[in-house]
């Protein structure tokens, strides 16, 4: 099993990104998802909040504690919060000090805003030539939509995510997630780490841009260009996915998910459902022919599954080496033994307004690192919770901290 | 604008991951998505295919050229292919030589298979202590489902992706993408880069595990735990997303996507639709109250959009600073000026069976790196296309290459 050897003096794992400092001026979802991954891997993520705070503190569902909405809690754990008014001289003074100490700067501001706040890559590189400056944009700079405000639903509608739902459902719908924000946030975390690796070779930082629309469209089209790849009149949309029976299949008492893609799995599946004669049916004989006859293939699956209970089918299919698992509702998912056993879903303690401890359900980093490990998890920060601490680390004395407090840099406590 | 200064001798950008070598034994989607990101950032990704080839060569839609399905082409560009029978002595001999030269090994084999093929982290670290060994698993090792075969649809059904569709549509459905494969592939690429950064500090590689189920469940629950975060009986599912009107909105001539989350956007939106009196409606006065009254808020949006054409609304809303964009079908997306202008969607040249050049539609890396840049794009490899070349690089002479060819290591040409 996996064991951690890279530990702090108190025996805690440090994480693969220990020693990396990230300045995060983003809010809502896309940026916070990116920096969450870095924070969970041991980076010191300083969440720089404007005087009004990250919108997600209020937008992310009813909070138990003011400014601590559920979604805010789940996207901002393991980060530190400082309040900076970057429009004020005091805020810029603190920011300049932070830039000198940082490896990464992340924002989703538009170029004009970065310019007016003095947060361009050029301005930061003058202070710290090794900084990696990541801009998460709606639309790539230089294109006709550059600078147009983008939110997840707008990107879903424009990038083909909603169109794929229309292919299946007959009308455009959004995915039931903040899908493109969430997806592009992970892409940004990957691009940032790639740029940090590039820095090891070149010795200098760089500006990187991660555009939401282009990433979302590439995500959709890589799966669904299909015959349009070759033929200007070719059909788009993977028929194995845009298929009425490509869904959890109804059983006598619920739903089951079955997957039988290889020839061996196909043969085992037809044996399992008592239709061995279909093994020799030319429509299903090869992967290529099953792709052509996917509707018939999936229809036979759907019909067969209705005949028994989910538990019966899982047992029978497992015995025949056909991949199959039951379907989880959101409720039943929470009781899943694998999920609970993995430690990804855990009972955390959060202090309520009166400082009393109340338990809450929290999430943890799902991946494992045998040597560097995953650092102990900390709850999402209160608004400005670490302002004092960070100002002190930057070498601001007590008098300076008093001067700064409430004038652009605020502990907000 | 972004300019590249880190170039090869022929003036090509090298990419942030130049100099990183990745051994990729994965197939289908999750692994190839992970190594695609690394390949596009300049890593030398060696795709090690079994004698039967990556299943996606046949599963990914009707090919123009045998073994080159559309989806295979889009998930495997910029990689090199060698055919190795890892069950044969010759295959292992070549693999050992490759491991000595590599930074990263990626597989989605189960522990038993890694063991029997001698591909465990321990075995590789004995040859190369700096190797980062990434296993993309269905379910985390140590849990009750460890080793159970997992495919995207099974993970979608089990992790709550299908359940979120049930919340909106009344019945479980899959997202119209290979969503969890695609998502976890990006997560794996990020975890690999994080581990490579950790290696810079510790001096040694490590084994990392990226489990699909746990990552997909964390993705779903971070958005939808909602009140269940605090209260064992609390409601799950973000009501702003699980909402009948959270979709592209019908206009007189099509669909539009509108987003108005801040107070300023709310006020501007009510002005834009000629309902200024609603600005003072207590149900909509704050972010928090709009979250509570989201159904009413979204219903007003939906009703208003029916009154004009998409173009009229986009112009009016843009004028009022309300984020809005038209909805794209898969067809209209291909003609989008931003997407075409970005170079993400491009006309490539592919040789057909007779060696004649035919144009095809290809995708490119969407992100930008001001210093290291994005290397020139290469088409996905033919089966075993680079076998000879790679064997020669490893120092196998002509005689040895002949001995190996067709006996575990095959140029397949």
TrEMBL record, chains A, B:
Keywords on record: Transferase
Pfam families linked: CoA_transf_3
UniProt-recorded Gene Ontology molecular function terms: CoA-transferase activity
InterPro entries, per database record: CoA-transferase_III_domain, CoA-Trfase_fam_III, CoA-Trfase_III_dom3_sf, CoA-Trfase_III_dom_1_sf
Designated name of the protein: Formyl-CoA transferase
Superkingdom assignment: Bacteria
């Amino acid at each position: 099993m996996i064991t951690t050897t890279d530990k702090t003096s108190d025996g805690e794992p440090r994480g693969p990104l220990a020693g990396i400092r990230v300045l995060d001026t983003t809010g809502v979802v896309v940026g916070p998802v990116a920096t969450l991954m870095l924070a969970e891997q041991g980076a010191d993520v300083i969440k720089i909040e404007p005087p009004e705070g990250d919108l997600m503190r209020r937008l992310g569902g009813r909070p138990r504690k003011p400014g601590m909405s559920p979604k805010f809690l789940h996207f901002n754990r393991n980060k530190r919060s400082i309040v900076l008014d970057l429009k004020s001289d005091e805020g810029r003074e603190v920011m300049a000090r932070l830039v000198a100490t940082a490896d990464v700067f992340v924002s989703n501001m538009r170029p004009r805003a970065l310019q007016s706040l003095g947060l361009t890559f050029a301005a930061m590189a003058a202070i710290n030539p090794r900084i990696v400056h990541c801009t998460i944009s709606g639309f790539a700079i230089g294109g006709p939509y550059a600078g147009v405000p983008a939110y997840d639903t707008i990107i879903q509608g424009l990038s083909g995510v909603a169109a794929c739902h229309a292919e299946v459902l007959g009308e455009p719908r959004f995915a039931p997630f903040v899908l493109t924000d969430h997806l592009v946030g992970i892409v940004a975390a990957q691009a940032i780490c790639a740029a940090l690796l590039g820095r090891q070779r070149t010795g200098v930082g760089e500006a990187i841009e991660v555009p939401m629309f282009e990433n979302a469209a590439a995500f959709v089209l890589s799966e669904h260009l299909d015959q349009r790849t070759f033929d200007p009149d070719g059909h788009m949309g993977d028929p194995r996915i845009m298929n009425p029976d490509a869904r959890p299949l109804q059983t006598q008492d619920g739903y089951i998910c079955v997957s039988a893609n290889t020839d061996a799995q196909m043969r085992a599946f037809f044996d399992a459902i008592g239709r061995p004669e279909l093994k020799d049916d030319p429509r299903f004989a090869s992967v290529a022919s099953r792709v052509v006859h996917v509707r018939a293939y999936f229809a036979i699956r759907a019909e067969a599954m209705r005949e028994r209970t989910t538990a019966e089918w899982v047992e029978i299919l497992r015995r025949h080496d056909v991949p199959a698992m039951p379907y989880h509702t959101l409720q039943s998912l929470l009781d899943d033994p694998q999920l609970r056993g993995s430690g990804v879903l855990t009972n955390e303690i959060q202090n309520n307004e009166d400082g009393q401890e109340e338990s809450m359900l929290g999430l943890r980093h799902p991946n494992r690192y045998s040597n560097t490990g995953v650092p102990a998890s900390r709850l999402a920060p209160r608004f400005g919770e670490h302002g004092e601490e960070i100002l002190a680390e930057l070498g601001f004395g007590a008098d300076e901290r008093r001067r700064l407090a409430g004038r652009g840099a605020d502990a907000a406590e």
